[in-house]
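Please review the protein record below. Tell me whether the encoded fold seems credible here:
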Amino acid sequence: MKTHKGTICGILAAICYGTNPLGALPLYAEGVNTCSVLFYRFSLAAIILGVTLLVQRKSFAVSLQELKVLGMLGMMFAGSSITYYQSFHFMDAGIASTILFVYPIMVAAIMALFFHEKITATTILSIGLALFGIALLYRGDGGVVLSMTGIVLVMLSSLFYAVYIVIVNQSSIRMSSLKLTFFVLLFCASILFLYSLTSPENHLQLLHTPRAWFFACWLGLVPTVLSLVLMVVAVHEIGATPTAIMGALEPLTAVAVGVFMFGEQMTIRLGIGIVLILTAVLLIVGGKSFHLRTITHSLSVLVKKTWRWKS
């Protein structure tokens, strides 16, 4: 029963996070800028988590050292979110979500470069597959080239999030996931408020319609709070690696949302690129659970069948 519960929670956590475009794109259509969208997302999520901690009678106390680490995490998470949401203005949300998913590969690379973790053949193959997949996404079937600005923004977002994960992993901070996330979101909202003061284009906007408030609440609840809570349950019940593998449903959900809700185009070339990137990530998070020869053979068969179907 625990396995079934954990699996279901892991799947739902990934699907919930993949609905980010479902909340962001309608707000963009109403003229709400990126800074405001994220400010409402993080503020509402922080309020929900704060109330949850109060109901559970948990302490909000943190040490100065913990506050410094939480501030760094808030900066990384805010930077990742700003660049990710900005990329929606330059490319389809489904493609942006797929490229963002290379962050586990970046984590592996950072750990190898700065913390002397061994670079394995699997890591090298994963990086190669991810780069090839991104190259396929870069130029579509009709020769349409993706915005380089959009690609740079997503890659920066992925890098910020990878650094976020490394900091969590390497720091000595010890607190519950809910408490940590509450403070990170609080720092994110504060950083976004300060960022909104940097230029008129970034100023915080009031939400004037019930529709806008609905999608703002959606962002704060579904891809933020619900995704977090379900992920914590999944990790507790079935472990971190299976939960991470199920995270492949995140970009797939975003692609489905983009195609069916917002009319984004899906081509065979893009499909192959998405499959390559997801395979690269699964290789990284699966680690020793996968046999390199088996994966390589399966990939070869998949690509041959796909191109045969196309012709």
In short: The two ends are 46 Å apart (CA to CA). Confidence is low (pLDDT under 50) at residues 288-296, 302-311.
